[in-house]
């Protein structure tokens, strides 16, 4: 099966879509597919990507988004148009894209390259926001009008995609995956603590989040005083950056959080497993969440997750088994959930074991690739 994966977000950029396409491409190759990735990225290439092993073939075409922020999308579209024009000379079984914009815009305008089927994975919480606010999803509907199938990486995204599909388009749920070989449980090392700027005596709570209002980090900061009042040796480490970084730092100063919170900044995917092993737990204070790869990576390392009961989070947080669900938009609920775990280290250790087992059984990339290949095949046959 010859598959073209197309995404404006790709390695080495951080973020869930970039990681999803990176790992899916390798898992599909391992499963025997002939895979070509056309991937956009903003971060510089410091070293070649890891090439997949398996019976399939693999090709990678990278397009760096350059220039001022408002021109980067246009730059990518122009470069991608030329690449797709060349790839149109080949025959494809599947074209699979991962963003409404700009991916879907470009592939929606042009009905090439030709493929037996087109598939779109709806990772977007923007669609969820649009629906919740009562706005028309006509733009989303136009972008996916030529696809044969839509994948939702959470049941909610699958179900909400029903408002944008037309007759004959097939919806399915295929979860996100996690690299179970890279994200493995283990004892923290000296590097684990040094990368975070903490000491082994502290209880580390990690928030691996883009600094975006939808991620709810302002609610997490408001929850910190209550947590550290009960557990003074707790430190919150925020990994990531974004448009809200300045505002979050100002809020931390206003709340006088001091050394109880550390803004670690962006961290490479290679270093994340190292710092995760230093964590007592992870936290997802999201207001909207399609599917959180950071949450799955925490569970894969045996780190329980306290997360809000929104979007795809309940698919992997099983209360009192892999973590705790709390109410969104509530610093009080967040604080209570975190205190519950900090008060009960034996309960936390039980969750740690169950978290790893749950990921192994449900979220390995091999399992995700097999489900994806089966979906491709069913669309081709129909």
From TrEMBL:
Keyword Transferase included in the entry's annotation: yes
InterPro entries assigned to the protein according to its UniProt record, in alphabetical order: Glyco_trans_1, Glyco_trans_4-like_N
Glycosyl transferase family domain segment(s): 200-357
Presence of keyword Transferase: yes
Keywords: Transferase
Domain Glycosyltransferase subfamily 4-like N-terminal: 14-182
Molecular functions per Gene Ontology: glycosyltransferase activity
Domain of life of the source: Bacteria
Protein name, per record: Glycosyl transferase family 1
Lineage, broadest ranks: Bacteria, Bacillati, Chloroflexota, environmental samples
């Amino acid at each position: 099966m010859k598959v073209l994966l197309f995404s404006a977000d790709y390695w080495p950029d951080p973020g869930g879509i970039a990681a999803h396409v990176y790992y899916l491409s390798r898992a599909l190759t391992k499963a025997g597919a002939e895979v070509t990735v056309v991937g956009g990225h903003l971060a510089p290439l410091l070293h070649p990507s890891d090439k997949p092993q398996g019976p399939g073939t693999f090709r990678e075409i990278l397009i760096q988004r350059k220039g001022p922020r408002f021109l980067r999308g246009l730059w990518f579209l122009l470069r991608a148009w030329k690449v797709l024009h060349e790839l149109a000379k080949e025959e494809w079984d599947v074209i699979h894209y991962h963003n409404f914009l700009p991916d879907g815009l470009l592939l929606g305008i042009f009905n090439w390259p030709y493929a037996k089927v087109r598939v779109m994975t709806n990772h977007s919480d923007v669609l969820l926001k649009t629906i919740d606010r009562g706005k028309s999803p006509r733009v989303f509907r136009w972008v996916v009008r030529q696809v044969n199938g839509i994948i939702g990486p959470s049941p909610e995204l699958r179900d909400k995609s029903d408002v944008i599909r037309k007759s004959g388009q097939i919806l399915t749920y295929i979860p996100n995956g996690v690299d179970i070989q890279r994200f493995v449980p283990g004892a923290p090392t000296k590097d684990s603590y040094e990368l975070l700027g903490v000491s082994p005596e502290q209880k580390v709570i990690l928030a691996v989040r883009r600094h975006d209002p939808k991620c709810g980090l302002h609610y997490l900061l408001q929850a910190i005083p209550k947590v550290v009042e009960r557990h003074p040796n707790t430190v919150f480490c925020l990994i990531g950056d974004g448009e809200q970084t300045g505002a979050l730092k100002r809020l931390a100063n206003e709340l006088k959080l001091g050394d109880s919170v550390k803004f670690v900044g962006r961290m490479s995917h290679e270093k994340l497993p190292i710092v995760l092993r230093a964590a007592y737990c992870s936290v997802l204070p999201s207001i909207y969440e399609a599917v959180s790869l950071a949450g799955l990576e925490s569970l894969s390392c045996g780190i329980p997750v306290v997360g809000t009961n929104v979007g795809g989070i309940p698919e992997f947080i099983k209360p009192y088994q892999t973590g705790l669900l709390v109410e969104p938009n509530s610093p009080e609920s967040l604080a209570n959930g975190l205190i519950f775990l900090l008060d009960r280290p034996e309960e936390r250790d039980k969750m740690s074991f169950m978290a790893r087992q749950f990921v192994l059984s449900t979220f390995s990339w091999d399992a995700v690739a097999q489900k994806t290949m089966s979906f491709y095949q069913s669309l081709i046959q129909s």
